[in-house]
Amino acid sequence: SNTPKPSIFKRRESDARSYCRGFDTTFVKATGSEMTDANGDTYIDFLAGCSSLNYGHNDPDMKAALVEHITRDGMTHGLDMHTDAKGDFLRAFEQHILKPRGMDHKVMFTGPTGANAVEAAMKMARKATGRTNIISFTNGFHGVTMGALSATGNGYHRGGAGLPVGGHVTRMPFDGYMGEGCDTSKFLEAMLGDASSGMDAPAAILFETVQGEGGLNAASAEWVKKVCDLAHEHGALVIVDDVQAGCGRTGTFFSFEEMGITPDIITMAKSLSGYGLPMALTLVRPQHDVFGPAEHNGTFRGNNHAFVTAQVAIEKFWSDSAFQDSLATKALVLTTGLQELADKIDGAYLKGRGLMQGVDVGSGALAGEICARAFQKGLVIETSGPNDEVVKVLAPLTTPEETFRKGLSILLDAADEVLE
Ligand code: PMP
């Protein structure tokens, strides 16, 4: 066959690649929550492009809209000019997402990655407040460009920069970081309220409500609310990085919807296009929308093909209450299956929220072995956490319950074999 052999990737692709190390085959096709490799073997996808395929692979309605757009020679690239595809997306986003939630935020299309949306958010908060310090949290992950990296906790990622990644960011303990029973928002409160703490007045407090790369640490609603109140008391903006936890991953479109807060700035990417096409945006309250023309630009802001599929994703799923109701049911299936996994391993425990849950199995070696064995059995699943110790499920939200159960049963069998 003409399918590329794994040798070309080993020979020519940079060693910076990571996922392929665990999944050493060549994928050629995917629909829904299943992927097929060159040997014709199929795999259930419990990774979903790290939450960029929340609506599954090749959704038929998105595909049809995209094919129609291409067939009629619709705009592919328009820099940031007005195009019909962009306008249609904005209208859908306003109607189905922003208005029902009472949000008057402006939509800024940034470069196509989550990291760029974070860069824009940090710069915007600094420009809007005239302050420079940004407070971020232990184990937070915000991307690998210099600004986003300065807010990222993990030393391994920061080490890739080859120079100290300072950038005037103060890191504080995330919810749960000091163990159960310790309310870490009290540290923040004390530091902010004490002129001799050495903490510079912050432009913004930046956090994920569930730390995706950091090991599925889910902040409580109380903690999040307290942190937001503190930010506003001290003249700082609240930035929620919803790149991974957004687009329905936690059960609602935004991850913070049931926490009684509305952030001043929100970053989104990954599943926004719904089709795996690069697209990112930064939502900002109008009064903080402070960039002048070209102050934060980039050639690939707003790919029109991504707008086309993103509009379908918004209209198809976020006006459909059956889809939204199904998320809680599936989250429960996930909790039950993962609890069974946790029960097999001494000291293991469940982490996360909604459809981003996993099990801390205690060591990266064990988590890696379980995922590798699961892959041999036809399940694509990855780890996260500072030591890769969390077996993490990020299946498409559209995965049928039956397939969810099948994937979980592969995972449990894999764990049994490894633990034997
Ligand atoms: N923020 C969060 C919360 C993320 O999970 C990620 C990616 N894993 C990013 C930012 C960076 O996004 P990207 O990889 O598209 O730059």
TrEMBL record:
Keywords: Aminotransferase, Pyridoxal phosphate, Transferase. It comes from the Bacteria. Pathway: Amine and polyamine biosynthesis; ectoine biosynthesis; L-ectoine from L-aspartate 4-semialdehyde: step 1/3. GO terms for biological process: ectoine biosynthetic process. It holds the Pfam family Aminotran_3. Its cofactor is pyridoxal 5'-phosphate. The keyword Transferase applies. Its EC number is 2.6.1.76. GO terms for molecular function: diaminobutyrate-2-oxoglutarate transaminase activity; diaminobutyrate-pyruvate transaminase activity; pyridoxal phosphate binding. PROSITE patterns: AA_TRANSFER_CLASS_3 (PS00600). The keyword Transferase applies. Belongs to the class-III pyridoxal-phosphate-dependent aminotransferase family. PANTHER family: DIAMINOBUTYRATE--2-OXOGLUTARATE AMINOTRANSFERASE, DIAMINOBUTYRATE--2-OXOGLUTARATE TRANSAMINASE. This is Diaminobutyrate--2-oxoglutarate transaminase. It comes from Tropicibacter naphthalenivorans. The lineage of its organism: Bacteria, Pseudomonadati, Pseudomonadota, Alphaproteobacteria, Rhodobacterales.
